[in-house]
Structure formats: structure tokens, C-alpha cells
Amino acid sequence: MPLFKNCVTCDLCINFDKDEVCICDKCCLLYHSQCSGLSRSDIQLLLTSSKQRPAFHCNKCISEKAQMSDLLKTISDLQAELHHLKQAKEEKSLLIDDVVNEINDRKRRENNIIIYGLEESSNDSPQVKEILKVVAPSICTDDIGIIRLGKSGRNRPPPVKVVLHKKDDVLVVLRNKRNLKTTHSNIAISTDNTKVQQEHFRRVRAELEQRKMKGERNLFIKYVYGTPTIAVSKNVN
């Protein structure tokens, strides 16, 4: 008794005793050979039992495979985008943390000055107060903090950090530090800069030297709202 099933494409009955039948190797659905969409030579090769017989995938399976490929690509793209967004969020979070830490660090240092070139002694207080008296006689020097930074025994004495009572005292010292040229020419005074500020100053100074080497003249470092920048002197000789 012949076996009958319907062709997926034409929905007509397939007579296995008479009709050429193509079976999808993926979904195992049945097709008349003329409904399979294959050429005659492909059908003949498909109906043989040769080892070179090609696999037959129906249009439905091919379409599903393409859709699956598109879906996998979409998933991959979404995963990459999510990874990028997560990374950007983490970097942004780190950036915000860095900014907050930098602000706090500058706040902690705003009452400090650094004195360079001060010879070491068993008690630095008299020397420090003498220097402050020259540059800023109006500020209070009672109970100020005086700390040597770094180890002794080097070619130059370690710098001294001086903790003044308020930020305004620091500004007074910085405005008048040039007064030391006549009495303490070996002494230099600066603000207590963070590592970020120090690195920025090094970059500005390196740029200044490069521009001078290229022939630019009358350049100098000017502080604008506490930030070092390169400026051009108006006094051109």
C-alpha cells in the first residue's frame, strides 16, 4: 500500500511510489521535487545515494537560519553596546571620583606654602618666621605648622611645608615673595600643589621651553586664577 503525505509547498498529496520526493535534511518536511526550488541536476544528485549528495534545506529552514544569524548578530551588537556603556559609565564614575578627590586635596592644602632652600637645623621655626616677617609682616605666625618634607642628607635641603592660619595669608606671602631677593636670594616659595597641579605645571614649562627654542620671544608663565598658563609680555624690545 503506497504511503501518502502532503507536499509543504503545493499541499498536494505525495505518492512515494510514483513521485520524486525531496526531504529537508533539517526539518524533515517533504516536497515534490518540482516544488523544492532545485534545478534538475541538483534533484538528480540529491536523489542518489552518493557520498557527494548535497544537503537539502528547504526555503523555510534557510529563512529561519538567516533570521537566526541576524538575531545572533543583533545580540552580539547589543552585548558590545552594553559593554561599551558599562565601560563608559565606570570611566565617568572614576572621572567624577578623581575630580572630587582633587578638589578635596586642594582644599586640604590651601593654607600651606612650601619653602625651598632653607638650610636644615634642629629647629626650623625661627628661620621660617624670619622669612615670613620679610615677605608678610602683617600675618600671624603663632602656632603655625612647620614640617620638613623628605629625607635629609641630599645636595639640597628638603623643602619645608608651612601651614598658615588661613588662605588669605598664603596669598599675601605669594604676592610679596619677591621681597626675598635682597635678603634671602637662595629661598623660593610656592603653593602646596597637588600631583595634578605639579604635572600640569611641568607640561606648561616644557611647552614654554619648546616655544622659546622655536624662536618665540617674551614668553613667560602667568598664573590665571591659580592656574599656570603661557603669556606674552607686552614689553617687546
TrEMBL record:
Coiled coil (residue ranges): 68-95
Q: Does the keyword Transcription apply?
A: no
Give GO MF terms, alphabetically.
zinc ion binding
Q: Which chain regions cross the lipid bilayer?
A: none
The protein's matches in PROSITE patterns, at most eight in alphabetical order, are given as: ZF_PHD_1
**Keywords noted in UniProt:** Coiled coil, Metal-binding, Zinc, Zinc-finger
What is the name attached to this protein's record?
Answer: PHD-type domain-containing protein
* Species annotation: Photinus pyralis
